[in-house]
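Protein Entry — a single chain follows
Fields — amino acid sequence, structure tokens
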Amino acid sequence: MNAGDIARLADVGRAAVSNWRRRHEDFPQPIGGTTASPLFSLAEVEEWLRRNGKPYEVSPGDLAWQRLRASGDDLRLGELVAAAGDFLEGRPSGLRPGVTELLAELADERGTRDAFEFLCERYVEAHSRQLAVTPAELAELMIRLSGGGTLLDPACGIGTLLLGAKAARGQELSGSSARIAQIRLRMRGVDGRVVAGDSLRQDGFPGERVDAVVCDPPFNERAWGHDELAGDPRWEYGLPPRGEPELAWVQHCLARARPGGTVVILMPPAAASRRPGRRIRANLLRGGALRAVIALGAADLWVLRRPESGERPPAQVLMFNGELSGVWPAWLEFQRDPQGVRIIDLLDDEVDVSPLRFDRRGTPAEFLAEQEGFRAAASSLTGPELAVLDEPRDLNMTTVGELAKAGLLAVHHSAMKPGEVADQGEVPVLSGDDVLLGGVPSGRTGSAAGQIVIEAGDVVTTPTGTVRVIAESGAVLGPQLTLYRLDPARLDSDFLAGFLRAGGGHSRGTSRLDARRTRVPRLSLPEQRPYGAAFRRLAELDDALRATTRRGERLIRLGLDGLASGQLL
């Protein structure tokens, strides 16, 4: 186990583990790994924690993961995770009996799919430098922008971008990652096929056309096959320069989309302006293939469309620079009324399609209005009145899992896939972005069996730990969300939401919420309510602070623009 595993085991931060190693000469010595990421014996760590009086808990999931990881070399960890998936699906795995017994117990506790997802999370955490996984909210946005249908991801990793598809095709250089992706799709009932291999050199789906392509390709890969692929028919918009592999991925994706099909691909921001790629960018614009460039900070999102034969190229392209939550509304507005940046204005010597170039500059009046709004918002930032105790209260604790077993609450996981959410339909859908921003349901869908209808007072969480108490009934639970329905005679919604937000449900070293381990005091309903009121006030402060931060960022930008342009003194 690594330092993150130890921190999770003892429910402390990674810094605490580092301090133990420095201050305690008897702390276990590494038995493997590297100097930067040493590995320790679980048995020795458990013995040290017991000897030093430090409480710890090995959950069935953690125990199964540690035993699986210890059953082979860390270089083969992906193969071990794939073998665990084989076992969970009832196929021969080659794993030792002690490991399979723990995996069976984990599946009994969580269900087959959630058990395998848990192992995948631990695998990504253990190999975070080698495995690049698209964040859940960004993956959901990419699928929405793609329009759904049959999806292809030619650099699919462990399959994250394909999980919400109705039908999927994937290719991945790593054989073990391709196996893991295939298992994840199969466990979700997705009609999918994933092959191993280098998509640029050995396309696994030659001649096949799909409705949409989504891709988070490797950046800055110089050895992508420039020389051997010089005459490849996929380069319809020009031979990608040796140092522009991302433009090779763009054209590969376009070649696999049907006419009228969509491509959504993550790109390094420099790909929008580097001189060697300007001819291909110009051809993508002239041909009507490039439809939007969306700045997301560390990366840009390019939205492309494979032109249909004989159609007239569009005159405008969307350039968006803003928050992730604003991308989808901006895209919908552009679809209804394509008022963006004129393509003819981009076809100069540079062909720079960086969205930051086209940020609208504000007026002095907007600066004054924003300044007044910021001052008013900042002056209203107050939290609850909380007393400081000389000694912490000794509370009798339980967990959310125990509360569920006792019937005080029920846990519901959404079975809806991102592709099922649209901008039309008679049923409103609460999305992860809506939960994050505290907004009203922004999606729509048709009525279908299995939908979870939200009731006022329900507590809803996202995979990354955002928690909301829902005020209004009627919407259905969106993709990747979890709902907690409480017995109002015994549990206060704000009380539970506060303890979920406090971090007790976070597994140390990962961003995902593991509510089964969230510790909650055993208190009567009248005792819960003051806690709930304080937690609610802190949640309101959090929302107000986010809004004030957005105002402040806009005030700063308007101030910089105004000073630079001579409009402000």
